[in-house]
Design a protein that fits this description.
Number of helices of chain A: 2
Number of strands of chain A: 2
Number of helices of chain B: 18
Number of domains of chain A: 1
CATH class of one domain in chain B: Alpha Beta
CATH superfamily of one domain in chain B: Succinate dehydrogenase/fumarate reductase flavoprotein, catalytic domain
CATH class of chain A: Alpha Beta
Largest interface: A-B, 32 and 54 residues
Structural class of chain A: little secondary structure
Strand content of chain A: under 5%
Radius of gyration of chain B: 23 Å
Largest sheet of chain B: 7 strands, mixed
Shape of chain B: globular
Helix content of chain A: 10-25%
CATH architecture of chain A: 2-Layer Sandwich
Strand order of the largest sheet of chain A: 1-2
Strand content of chain B: 15-25%
Number of strands of chain B: 19
CATH architecture of one domain in chain B: Alpha-Beta Complex
CATH topology of one domain in chain B: Flavocytochrome C3, Chain A, domain 1
Distance between the termini of chain B: 58 Å
Largest sheet of chain A: 2 strands, antiparallel
Radius of gyration of chain A: 18 Å
Order of helices and strands of chain A: EHHE
Oligomer: heterodimer
Helix content of chain B: 25-40%
Chain lengths: 82, 571
């Protein structure tokens, strides 16, 4: 799940937006709680969770989020192989 | 906003470095140390001062210690890479490895040592001599290195730009004169005028997980368009990964007694390789996993019960991201080190394909250099080689470019017309309807993830995958759009991934044999007569991929090619 910022804890420093390698937050505006602008881009590296000085960010793992190998269904059995 | 009207900025520099990770920073460091008067501009698509994917590395460093023989290491990798080793280049690289380890130490990065202050190395993949040296604190080694190098950039006055993607190189004849790119938040267009350009962008991946989701294939496309020779795109790193969460560092467990077992509890690698057993390269293990699962003996689990208690210091994370991962899993009721039912499956990560360069990182294009993981050296990945090869080749290329600039004549500037043409092309996907980059990416990932495309290849499966890629390119790629500059960056990533998928499939088809991580069901044996060489690819006159086998120059190499790692396996 994408990061969730607790507005009561957030100190408006903008660190999360600045460090996110996927730019999930979009640009930080001064003295505001950063917006999670591109939630679907989050890859759960948790850099924001680690660097938030106020411990204001919660991040919950999704289930599989990677390219996982699978076997190809045999052709002609309705598999998605071309 | 009319994207044709976005603001443009012209930036002039002596050296443009594309990529702000380990290799780019090492190149920048050497440039400034050679000539403090040089203007060095390092551009990265990620956040400011993050230091690239080095930050996410565990901290393992491969190095030849004083008293050890560089020749022994070269012989190990000639064997491990099934002969596809540039022996003279690797001799030079290994001979500089300990110096770079010392450089990191001098920058304050600590490695694991015994009570006498000797580095504690871990042998790997069943090799006789090659070892990796872990960071003192497992989990934050790469982060410490990244922070130390960023400090060096500040100290040396390297100019840096973040959130900026370089998209095209600009050439005058056979010489690079600059590049263009854009800011992924503001959309601002940049025209870089540079006397030399260094590409230092990392491996090309299919965005497998947080450890390499930024290192994709735009640079492959950029180098391909510029006429750079590429090689080794038939290689993949297919890791073993837990099915339900992310975990890394498995290689070191295998070196210490960890092993994968099938549903019957059998340590199946003993069957495929009685000599090496469990302690071998991941690509051979995942190939065996696929065969086990196909034959109804899945799922596959990791068994750590054979690791000695005193070796657990190498295994258990103590800090950083890995520790957080471990604690998070514990909170969800998963104890990674004790649960017996954690299912593992193969996971496509990246290709080791990259630029085929001269020993100093030079390409056939004057003024254009490639270093780090974008330069293809290793045919099968070896633990610790990421951190050491980025430092070493960055160092070498930084020196080479400083030398080049001492005598290079002034090139012409990127013209207004060139910049305008590239700008129009760059912003043409901006729109508000169609397919998002992620929707298209998932289809390419899906194509790559089938066992018969990534692990158990055949002419039939590869040809079918190429057909599917062509279909996606014709039917879906033209419908992909970018709603804003953030998504334009994703668009360019996916566009690059199309090219690297094509390079992978075409090289895999050409190599009608099995070698290293490349395994063909229809050609399961090695064929040295026709294929003891690198598959080199470049852009042909009509824009298509032109490829050939470039033989290993055995006559001028020191060591015979008569031992092959893949001979340890029967599949």
């Amino acid at each position: 799940m994408p990061p969730v910022i607790d507005p009561k804890k957030c100190v408006h420093c903008g660190t999360c937006a600045q460090i996110c390698c996927m730019d999930v937050y979009g640009p930080a505006k001064p003295q505001t709680v950063p917006q999670v602008r591109y939630p679907e881009e989050c890859w759960h590296c948790r850099a924001c969770v680690m660097d938030c000085p106020a411990g204001a960010i919660e991040l919950t793992y999704p289930l599989p989020m990677m390219i996982l190998c699978k076997d190809a269904p045999a052709r002609g059995e309705g598999g998605d192989r071309p | 906003m009319d994207w044709k009207q976005v603001p443009e900025t012209v930036l002039r520099t002596d050296v443009l470095i594309i990529g702000g990770g380990a290799a780019g920073m090492w190149a920048a460091k050497r440039l400034k140390e050679n000539d403090p008067g040089l203007d060095v501009l390092m551009v990265d698509k990620g956040p400011e001062s993050w230091g690239g994917l080095m930050r996410l590395a565990g901290g393992d460093f491969a190095a030849v210690l004083p008293g050890e023989s560089v020749d022994d290491w070269v012989k190990d990798v000639v064997y491990y890479w099934d002969g596809l080793c540039e022996q003279d280049v690797m001799e030079d690289i290994f001979s500089q490895s300990y110096d770079r380890l010392l450089d990191y130490k001098n920058l304050g990065c600590e490695f694991l040592e015994d009570e006498n202050g000797n580095l504690r190395g871990v042998p790997q993949r069943g090799l006789d001599h090659c070892r990796l040296y872990p960071a003192k604190l497992k989990g934050t080694g790469g982060q410490n290195m990244a922070e130390a190098m960023v400090k060096e950039m500040v100290r040396l006055g390297v100019r840096r730009m973040s959130r900026t993607l370089v998209t095209d190189l600009v050439k005058d004849g056979d010489r690079v004169i600059g590049a263009v790119g854009f800011h992924s938040i503001t959309g601002e267009y940049y025209i870089f005028q540079a006397r030399a350009v260094i590409v230092a962008c990392g491996n090309a991946s299919w965005k497998p997980g947080y450890n390499s989701n930024t290192s994709t294939g735009e640079w492959v496309d950029m180098c391909f368009q510029a006429g750079v020779e590429l090689r080794n795109f038939e290689t993949l790193t297919v890791m073993n990964a837990p099915k339900l969460f992310f975990w890394e560092g498995q290689a070191i467990y295998l070196a210490l007694g960890g092993r994968f077992v099938n549903a019957l509890g059998e340590p199946f690698m003993d069957k495929y390789s009685p000599v090496l057993g469990a302690n071998t390269d991941n690509n051979y293990i995942t190939r065996a996993m696929a065969i086990e699962i196909r034959n109804g003996r899945g799922p596959i689990y990791l068994d750590l019960s054979q690791i000695k208690p005193e070796d657990m210091v190498f295994v258990k994370p103590q800090t950083g991201n890995q520790m957080m991962n471990y604690e998070k899993l514990l909170a969800e009721g998963i104890d990674f080190f004790h649960d017996k039912n954690i299912e593992f499956i193969p996971q496509v990560q990246l290709t080791l394909g990259g630029a085929a360069t001269a020993p100093d990182g030079g390409t056939g294009v004057e003024g254009l250099y490639v270093c780090g993981r974008s330069r293809s050296l290793d045919y099968v990945y070896m633990g610790g080689f990421g951190l050491s090869s980025t430092a070493i080749t960055g160092y070498i290329t930084g020196n080479a470019v400083a030398d080049y600039l001492r005598t290079a004549s002034a090139g012409r500037e990127v013209s207004v017309g060139e910049a305008a043409g590239l700008k129009e092309k760059l912003y043409s996907p901006m729109g508000d309807a169609g397919l998002t980059p992620k929707q298209v990416l998932i289809k390419v990932q899906n194509l790559m993830s089938h066992y018969d495309v990534c692990l158990l290849k055949s002419a039939e499966s590869l040809t079918a995958a190429l057909g599917e890629l062509d279909r996606l390119r014709t039917e879906e790629l033209p419908r992909m759009y970018a709603a804003d500059p953030h998504y334009l960056l994703k668009y360019k990533e996916v566009e690059g991934i199309f090219l690297l998928t094509e390079l992978y499939l075409r090289a895999s088809l050409l190599r009608q044999e099995s070698r290293g991580s490349h395994y063909r069901l229809d050609y399961p044996k090695r064929n040295d007569k026709d294929f003891l060489g690198w598959i080199v690819q470049r852009q042909g006159a009509d824009g298509s991929v032109v490829q050939r086998v470039k033989p290993v120059p055995l006559a001028r190499y020191k060591h015979p090619v008569d031992r092959f790692y893949s001979d340890n396996f029967t599949f």
